[in-house]
Amino acid sequence: MSCAVTLSSPIQNAELPEINRRSAGYHPSIWGDHFLSYASNINREEDHDKEEEHQKLKNELQKMLMADEVDKPLEKLKLIDAIQRLGVSYHFEKEIEQVLHLAYNDCDIGVNDGNLYTISLEFRLLRQNGYKMSCEAFNKFKDSEGKLKESLINDVQGMLSLYEATHLRVHGEDILDEALAFTTTHLETMATSCLNSSLAAQISHALKQPIHKGLPRLEARQYMPIYQEDPSHNEAVLTFAKLDFNMLQRVHQKELSEIAK
């Protein structure tokens, strides 16, 4: 008959030395449990209703973009401009690409229309979406001495559109270099004298932060109230943009709540 004998090790019997660790002294989070409250504020029924309205408006805007309106090419460009500036263009990438591709192939919106706003808008939208647009269309706005016509300052909307277009210029485009200096000088005056509050707000912001150099999401939030004041704004686009912004914000809030947990 054998018996098991357990031998105790001197190392096991010895008391481990007490280790004193320095405290980092971190302060409590200034947010506390603030982000946890987002989870309790979720209303499933309300979210479902917003999602349905969001999808309905999305379908409506897709139809607007794809509508066969040969006689209204400018309206399509203005719609795309609003969609992009309101930060919801990621929903309509294919539709926007189709419209701009057709506009580029036709390439006569600006050529046949002497409107400064139209030419500048078309140039900016096409170039910022990767199309190689020539700046020669702007030569029609030069006087006999080869300078930009002073009469252009009477077209405030056109001047603002031209100013935004100049920020997509490349090296060697002298006409756009000249246009940037020309529009900047006159827009600074217009920002304080323009009677249209919506247009004045756009000018002031553009002089500080041109569209091309802004962060899309921040620009969208800033542009919403300005676009809403514009008498010619598209209500479907505006409502969709607000819904989309709020829904995305809710997603971020839920993520913060999960991280806080």
Automatic annotation (TrEMBL):
What is the name attached to this protein's record?
Answer: (-)-germacrene D synthase-like isoform X1
Alphabetized InterPro entries for the sequence: Isoprenoid_synthase_dom_sf, Terpene_synth_N, Terpene_synth_N_sf, Terpene_synthase-like, Terpenoid_cyclase/PrenylTrfase
| Any GO BP | terpenoid biosynthetic process
Note the superkingdom of the native organism: Eukaryota
Q: Where is the Terpene synthase N-terminal domain?
A: 30-207
Gene name linked to the record: LOC111275737
GO terms for molecular function, please? terpene synthase activity
Q: Per UniProt, which keywords does this protein have?
A: Lyase, Magnesium
Cofactor(s) needed, names only, are: Mg(2+)
Keyword Isomerase included in the entry's annotation: no
